[in-house]
Amino acid sequence: xxxxxxxxxxxxxxxxxxxxxxxxxxxxxxxxxxxxxxxxxxxxxxxxxxxxxxxxxxxxxxxxxxxxxxxxxxxxxxxxxxxxxxxxxxxxxxxxxxxxxxxxxxxxxxxxxxxxxxxxxxxxxxxxxxxxxxxxxxxxxxxxxxxxxxxxxxxxxxxxxxxxxxxxxxxxxxxxxxxxxxxxxxxxxxxxxxxxxxxxxxxxxxxxxxxxxxxxxxxxxxxxxxxxxxxxxxxxxxxxxxxxxxxxxxxxxxxxxxxxxxxxxxxxxxxxxxxxxxxxxxxxxxxxxxxxxxxxxxxxxxxxxxxxxxxxxxxxxxxxxxxxxxxxxxxxxxxxx
Length: 337
Description:
Blueprint: E1 17-18, H1 30-37, H2 52-62, E2 69-72, H3 75-86, E3 93-95, H4 104-111, E4 115-116, E5 129-134, H5 146-155, E6 158-162, H6 176-180, E7 185-190, H7 191-194, E8 203-206, H8 209-218, H9 226-237, H10 246-261, E9 266-268, E10 275-280, H11 285-296, E11 298-299, E12 301-302, E13 313-317, H12 321-336
Parallel strand pairs: 1-11, 3-4, 3-5, 5-6, 6-7
Antiparallel strand pairs: 2-8, 7-8, 9-10, 10-13, 12-13
């Protein structure tokens, strides 16, 4: 489950460049930190049992009702809450779509007692199946088109669209309003990723009111701490932008992909977001990761534990141009030694 998800910088104390997390690692959070320091009195009291104050801020920002929103302790908390809730309803099966994709959908479904639906020979109707989608998809960086999403929602009883990386792509995403006005769509959003605050676990679900009501019945009280709630409200009310120039950042991703593809024995896949799935032809990802960390103080994501991938797959996320150059040169040296 959670082991091996990347960003294990705690195992490598001398890391100088962290490519293993998909979150933008150079965010300027000084103002947020100062604001939270002024709100430390909040830790002396219980937070809201359910963060309605943050739900109202989100609702106002996106033009929907607070009844269409449920705030969670990060996107992963949302995934497990959704799986637990739907397993108690009419849904008996699940699909995770094309592999590779984020492993927690399968883990959460399995733990909740849902059965994997196999297209060939499975008699279960798609109307009793929940379909999980990651858009943009982690770890490939692929994006579903609006037409593809519309087609999928017609085939399944319930579709969960994890849009955690929606602010790391220029591709068109399904809107909050579209999910709220649907009958069978649940959207997952990650403030953790949007605002580069992985240490503050905070996300939210957007869905039609009848689905939010079901989810709320299974939600844990006080699941989101007071500082996370305060951070979420402050960031959204102040319309904070963590990435100043997304166009440049994503163009740098394409430049990094080009650098990687020039290295003998490395193939980097196409992507529509800030991370790149790559494969070595000869060296395992575990060995490449270890050598980069210990010789060059650079951390990458060993993607070999993602179902559908091989021991030779790894993932990197774009950093500064100088760091990207250093990564490519370090991999080139390792691969050609």
